[in-house]
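Can anyone check this?
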Amino acid sequence: MTRDFDLDEKVYSRCVRIFDHAKSILKVRIRMHQEARQLHDGDIFLFNHFARAETFIPQYCIYQETGALCRSIASGEFFKSSTPFTRLLQNLGAVPNDDPKLLPLLASDILKGRKIIIFPEGGMVKDRQVVDEEGHFSVYSRSSGTRRKHHSGAARLAIGLQLFKLAVLHKARHDRHHDLEKWAEQLGLPTVEILLEQARKPVTIVPANITFYPLRAQDNFLRRGADLVFEKLSPRAIEELIVEGNLFFKATDMDIRCGDPIRPQDLWPWWGRQVANYVAGDLPDLETIFAPQYLLENPLRELAAKGLHRSIDTLRDRYMRDIYRSVTVNLSHLAASTILQMSAQGTREFSRRYLAKVIYVALKHLQTHTEVHLHRSLINPNLYRRLLGEAAPDLEEFLETAVTAQLLMIHGDRIVCLDKLNQDHAFDQVRLENPVEVYANEVAPVTQVGNAVAAALEESPSLSARAVARYAFADELCVLDWDRRLFSQAKHHQINAQETATADPAPYLLLPAAPLEMGVLLVHGFLAAPAETRPLGEALYAAGYPVLGVRLKGHGTSPWDLRERAWRDWQQSLERGFDILRAYCAKICVVGFSTGGTLTLLHAAQAPADLAGIVVLAPSIHFKNQNMRFVPLLHGANQLVEWVTNQEGILPFRPNNTEHPDINYRNMPTKGLYELTRMSTAVKEVLPAITCPALIIQGNADPVVDPSSAELVFEKIASADKRLAWVDSKRHGILYENIDGTHQLALDFVARMAATQG
């Protein structure tokens, strides 16, 4: 048996290399999500089954990560005759599902260090409906036309192999060395020591979920090409060519997510362990444990068999639950669940804006559930907060697919649910006819999704400005987390390792129990973080003001992050903070230091109605370092080198001898300095547009910013209420260090603005 179905390592590795090259043609983006050593330690890997072409990808990923060869199970129909395709399947490790010695073969392979790939659904589940009306796991059977339980072969394999391992250890304890030598020879293992080493490792199942995103129902070249070759394609073939052609030849994310490992022996109750040890005690060989008649030969074994059958069912239900709960939840899942819940409640028409708001609120609820696996686009606020703007590309693509399938109709901003949305569709057509239902079915086992959507539908109609602000501030924290992880890769390590900042880089929102009507927005400087403004923020909070300390994009993470940002990104950070804070107060004072001061001036030039006044400390317009004039030239040279050589440029970073190494970057990106000069040029043009009350504070011997900057601002702004205050300082950081009463100057100005507004 083993010789008949032995795989060919040369063919196997050759096919891996071929797929390496094919990936450049395919548009599918494969990502394997796993904890440390999950792929190395796992024996049996279980996957859900949605597309035919996915069946070879897990083997590829496991081989790339571990070098281990994989067995897989294919339909017995492929092995009826000897064809080149059949031989290829055998060489790649496939075995027929109807072979009477299938389980012993797979168990033997595991003992040899191979991995086993199983799709326990037993076929493609195109509708993704895996939960029946009673809440139990089941799938549709095409052959019977009814729903059935999932296959339990993987559970039988795992438990049977674990019993054999117990038998090996039992014989070792009783010095049955001759029996062990016989078993090692039967299994094709070179030594008894290797057999014992394998027996000491518990059988490990790794349940995993494959999630494709997005699904598309549009026609494609694969289907059109098949039309030219074949006279008439069946509806089923057409459906598979369209859906799977789009999955692999259009930009699609394929997330393969491994769940927590399951070791069957860990699930056994005390009596189950006794049963297992009894059965293993006199086991003659590996094949016998998989032979039903062996457990029926005497009353005690028959009783043990009943316990083992219960263990098999329990294990099957456990790994199926874990497979489905490991789905990677994406925006289309939330959109589909939202639309179907609204439809069930009788809401058949709604606005685009309302749908987007409900999805956003549902997402914010889901983000609190760390056990739910969110698609990367749902943990990156730079992407998902587009839902609250004018355009959310992912949502628009979902709606376009639903409209193409004639499930929805859109008139301007209005969305109307059509009758087809709630109709039943044939199993082999549902992916084309109702992708909304398919999406919703896929996340049905993740009850947190349905609950989050229900909560969002209840909350959204009366969502207050402060609730939106709370979510928006939470997004600022999410952005920080996202950016820190994004710029913590191997290529960033050398620069990141030189950084000394230890202060909390997070933005902060301080809300007094009895807040005043005036709020204060604090904006830190170049290379710094919100910790720079925190001491003044605490003083303002103690005085009763709502306070928000923003984090400028690219700061508090990595110099590599700052290298990617333009000054308008910093300006948007300020504006988002302003929008959040305005939910908590009637008027706002903005206090900005250095680069934060320049950004404050740019914001004031827009004359927002609720801006009460500004405090600008050491605005960075003119610089003491005359080398700043060469920054544009150096930046241009860097760009040229990057373009020609694909390297990082002549001088991508410069050292920064900072006054506050616990807060500031020690490395300055040249690109960031270039953006600083661009911003300084831009602010000069808008100074005359500033008319709000303004306090400019400047150190008289600032070593970084030329004091002429403050004089220029004072002279050019058109404010009737303006003051230039000089502080005695030879240091730049007058705000953080509260030099010469800087904090009190700011506090007095804010208090005067609050009194004026009152």
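Reply from J.R.: I decoded it. DSSP finds 31 helices and 23 strands in the chain.
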